[in-house]
Amino acid sequence: MYKILIVEDDHTIASIIEERLGKWEYKTSRVSDFSDILSSYISFEPHLVLMDINLPYYDGFYWCAKIRQLSHIPIIFISSRDTEGDKIRAITQGGDDYIEKPFSMDLLTAKVQAILRRAYSYSDQTLNILQHRDMVLDIEHLHVLCGEKEIELTRNECKILSMLIRNHDKVVNRARLMKALWDDESFVDDNTLTVNVNRLRRKLETIGLEGYVKTIKGEGYRLL
C-alpha cells in the first residue's frame, strides 16, 4: 500500500483529499505541526507528498528543499498560485508536478496514480531515513543532518549509527556491532570498532551533537 503525506493547512481541502485517496486504498497522513513538517515526513515515510505552497511558518518551497536533501520521493505541488514563475520555481526546486486550485479530485487522483506508477513500477523503493531527537541520518547518502549543518560518514560509521538509532532505547553490545560491520573481505576487530566509534563521535560533535554516543562500560554503546 502506497503512503501519501498531505501537507495542506486548509482542513476542508485536506479532508477531501484524504477521503478520496482513501477510496483508492492509499494510506494517508495529514501534517498537523507545520513548524516541523520534516519530522512528519520522516516518521510517516511516505511514497509521495502533496505539498501546498502557502503554509504557516515556512512555505512549500522551503519544505520541498528540505525533503530533497533526504530523498528523491515524488512531490506534487498544490497551490492557488497560478503564475508561470511559481510553476517554474516548483519544478526547478524539486517538484514533480503542479496542480492549481481549485482542481478536480479526478485530476489529482490521475496525477497521483501516474507519478506513483512511474516512480515505483520497476522497484519498491523505501526510505532509508532515521531520526533521533534533532539528528537525521540519511543511510543511502551516508550523511547526518542537524538543523542546517551536515556531515558525511563512512559506510562503517553509518552502520554503527543506524544500529544505535534503531535501538536507541537500549544498549547495543560490541559483539553485535562488530557483526554488523562484517563484509565479504574482512572482519572488523574490537580495536577497529573503537576507532570507528570515536571517529563517529568526533564528527557528530562538529555539528553540535556532543555526547550522543555513550559508552556503557563492559557492555557496549547507546544513544542519549
From TrEMBL:
GO biological process: regulation of DNA-templated transcription
Record's protein name: Stage 0 sporulation protein A homolog
Chain ranges of the Response regulatory domain: 3-116
Keywords: DNA-binding, Phosphoprotein, Transcription, Transcription regulation
OmpR/PhoB-type domain segment(s): 127-224
Organism: Geosporobacter ferrireducens
Gene3D superfamilies in the cross-refs: 3.40.50.2300, 6.10.250.690, Winged helix-like DNA-binding domain superfamily/Winged helix DNA-binding domain
Annotated GO CC locations: cytosol; protein-DNA complex
4-aspartylphosphate modification, residue list: D52
